[in-house]
Design a protein that fits this description.
The structure is a single chain. By secondary structure, this protein is α/β, with parallel strands linked by helices. The protein has one domain. Helix content is 19%, strand content 36%. It contains five helices and nine strands. Strands 2-4-7-9-8 form a five-stranded mixed sheet. A four-stranded mixed sheet has the order 1-3-5-6, with no helix packed on it. A hairpin with a 2-residue loop joins strand 5 and strand 6. The radius of gyration is 18 Å and the shape is globular.
């Protein structure tokens, strides 16, 4: 998602603002395709989620390095994404991602995004919240507890972590990075297989097809 070739991306950017209200006993499944920015693109996304008591949500926000087949790898100008999560009128989480090829920090040596983010070409942030997704959360926590940290001279094809959103145990945030987008997609499909019981088998197969 980005500007069409030929437009002056330095002077404008793509902006998207969304608000989601999740009623009690309902489930929000936000499982889009990953954002893939063109060379020089600037993309800004702000999403607000208002979850009522008893409501549940699965929120996926992920980005690829770009159109690798065209030699574009982390060559967009700017990617800014905010996910603001509220429960019963109280903010419980605010996740902000900023990737900027033109941001200069005098405290550290200036390096392009490609050098900072390699070897991974896809990063995902996944939020699970509410009673309907507790089984998925428990399964992921169990898997993560079994991971052994081993020293290796080569980076893993995929890395991930999970942490609670707050002390109530109602939600978690999962972060994933993969050398290839398809590797991350396959992991997400398996990790969220419990969603199939909400959507039905045929619908779930189309989500990560």
């Amino acid at each position: 998602m980005a500007h069409q070739p030929g437009l002056n991306n330095e002077l404008s950017s793509t902006k998207q603002t969304s608000r989601f209200v999740v009623a009690s006993e309902s489930v929000l499944l936000l499982l889009p395709e990953p954002v893939t920015c063109f060379r020089g693109a600037s993309y800004n996304q702000i999403q607000r989620f208002e979850i009522t008591e008893g409501g549940s949500a699965v929120i996926l926000d992920w980005i690829t390095s770009g159109r690798i087949s065209r030699g574009e790898e982390w060559e967009f100008s700017r990617y800014y994404s905010v996910n603001d999560i509220w429960h019963n009128g109280k903010r419980i989480a605010k996740d902000v991602t900023l990737l900027d090829n033109h941001h200069h920090d005098m405290r550290v040596p200036d390096r392009p995004l490609q050098n900072k983010l390699q070897p991974y070409s896809c990063y995902a942030m996944l939020i699970l919240y509410g009673p309907r997704v507790h089984p998925i959360m428990r399964d992921l926590i169990s898997q993560y507890d079994k991971i052994s940290i081993l020293k290796s001279n080569a980076p893993s094809q995929l890395i991930w972590s999970i942490s609670p959103i707050d002390s109530t145990g109602q939600g978690v945030v999962v972060r994933v990075g993969g050398v290839e987008t398809e590797t991350v997609k396959a992991w997400l499909k398996q990790a969220l297989s419990g969603v199939e019981y909400i959507t039905g088998k045929d619908v779930y197969k189309r989500i990560f097809s």
